[in-house]
Design brief:
The chain is mainly alpha-helical. The protein is built from five helices and no strands.
Length: 173
C-alpha cells in the first residue's frame, strides 16, 4: 500500500509539473505573439500596421489568467494543497476582460442592432454583480487568513510551542 501511495504521489507531481510547463510555454508563447504581431510589426512598418490596443489588452489579460493558473499549480506543487483565492482572481480577471470587450464592442451595436445592445447591457449587469461577488470573496478570504495569522501570533505569545503560520499553511504542523 505504501508503494502505491508513493507512486501516486510521484505521478501526481509529474502531472502538475507537466501542466505547469505547458502553461508556462503557452503564456510565454502568447506574450511573444503579442510582441511580435503588435509591437514589433508596428515599429517595423508603422504606416502599414493597424495598431489595436484593445486586442493587445485582451491578449494580455489572457496571459495574466495563464499566469494566475500557473501560480495555482506552483502552490499545489510546493504546499500540496489547493487554495480558493487564485481561482477567484482568475475569475476576476476573466470578468474584467469580458467587461472591457463588451464595452468596446457595444459602440458598434448601438445603431445597428437594438436587441443585441440590450443583451450586452444585461450581460454587463450580470458581470458587474459577479465582479462584486468575486471581490467580496477575495476580501473575505484575505480577511480570514489575516485573522488566522493574528490568532496564531497571539497563541505564540501565550504558548511558545505553538506552530508557526508557515508550518500550518504547508501542512507540517
Amino acid at each position: 500500500m505504501q508503494k502505491l501511495l508513493s507512486f501516486w504521489s510521484r505521478a501526481e507531481t509529474a502531472v502538475y509539473v507537466g501542466i505547469g510547463f505547458t502553461l508556462l510555454i503557452a503564456a510565454l508563447g502568447a506574450l511573444l505573439q503579442i510582441w511580435w504581431t503588435s509591437l514589433v510589426g508596428w515599429f517595423v512598418h508603422p504606416g502599414q500596421m493597424n495598431f489595436d490596443p484593445l486586442g493587445i489588452l485582451d491578449q494580455l489579460l489572457v496571459v495574466s489568467m495563464l499566469g494566475e493558473i500557473l501560480q495555482m499549480v506552483k502552490i499545489s506543487l510546493t504546499q500540496r494543497r489547493m487554495f480558493s483565492e487564485p481561482f477567484l482572481v482568475v475569475g476576476l480577471i476573466s470578468v474584467v476582460r469580458r467587461i472591457i470587450i463588451i464595452t468596446a464592442e457595444s459602440n458598434q451595436f448601438i445603431t445597428q442592432h437594438e436587441n443585441r445592445f440590450t443583451l450586452f447591457m444585461a450581460e454587463l449587469v450580470v458581470l458587474g454583480l459577479l465582479l462584486v461577488v468575486l471581490v467580496f470573496g477575495i476580501h473575505k478570504l484575505r480577511q480570514q487568513r489575516l485573522d488566522e495569522a493574528r490568532r496564531l501570533r497571539a497563541e505564540q505569545r501565550e504558548y511558545p510551542d505553538t506552530p508557526h503560520l508557515q508550518d500550518v499553511i504547508s501542512g507540517q504542523a
